[in-house]
C-alpha cells in the first residue's frame, strides 16, 4: 500500500499477509497504522507526515499462531491500547506506547476460532468465537463474564462483531447465514433485534462513527414511511413523502428529515436497498427502530433500549 502524500516515491508499505481477515488492520487518530502478519504486529507511526519517513516497529511473536483480529481503544489520545486475538485462542491487551502486554486471557479454548476482540467501553473487552461464545473481560479488575447463552436458541456461526460507539452495552453480530443480531450485553445478555439484509454471510459490519444522535429527541418527531415511498419521493418535497394517518404533527416531523442528510451527508434513498422490509418506522421520541418483514406482518422487532444510529454492513462478494 503506497501513501501518496509522502514526498518519497519509493515508500511502499506491504499489504498484510492476513489481508482476508476483515479486522487485521487499524488506523489511529494520530496516524498510526497497525496490522498483523502471521504472528507479528507491524506498527507504522506518523504515516501521514509529509516531511519525514514513518517510524517503524515490529512486535515479534505477538501470538504463537496466526493473528485474526485487531482493535484500538476508542480513547486512543488518552491511552494507546490495542487488543488482539489469534488462532492460539489468546486475547491480548497491549500498551502501544511501550510495545508491551498489559494482560491476556485464553477463555476460548473450547472454541474453534476467535473471530473478533473489541473494546467495550472504558474498562472491558468483548471477544467472540465463531460458535457464539462471548466473553466480557474487565481488564482493569481482570474479571471474566461468559455470555454463553446470549443468542438463546438461535444456532449461530458468528462472522463479525461491532460495538456501538454510543452505547457500550449494545453490540451487533454478523452471522454466516446473512442475519445480523443486535444484542444487549447487560446481565446475561439478550437479543434485542434481528435484521435480515443478506443472503450470504456477513463478512464485516460497523456502526456509523458520528459523535451524536442523528435525530433530536423530540416527542413530536415521528415518521412512518415505506422504502417504496422513499423511492417514489426522490426529487419531490418532503411533505409528499409521508402519507400515513399515524403521523402526528407532520410539519414538525418532516423538518427533521433534512437534518439526517445535513449532519452526516447521507442520502435517504439508500434505505431503498432494504428490500426485505415492508415498513420502516423512525421514532426519535423513544429513539428506536421498528421493522416488520413481508413474512411477519403481525410481528415487529423493537429495539426500545437502543439509540437510533446507522449500522453499515458489508455483504460477501
UniProtKB/TrEMBL annotation:
GO terms for molecular function: mRNA 3'-UTR binding. It comes from Acanthoscelides obtectus (Bean weevil). Residues 63-238 form the Gem-associated protein 5 first beta-propeller domain. Pfam families: Beta-prop_RIG_1st. This is Gem-associated protein 5 first beta-propeller domain-containing protein. Keywords: Repeat, WD repeat. One of its GO terms (cellular component) is SMN complex. WD repeats lie at residues 60-96.
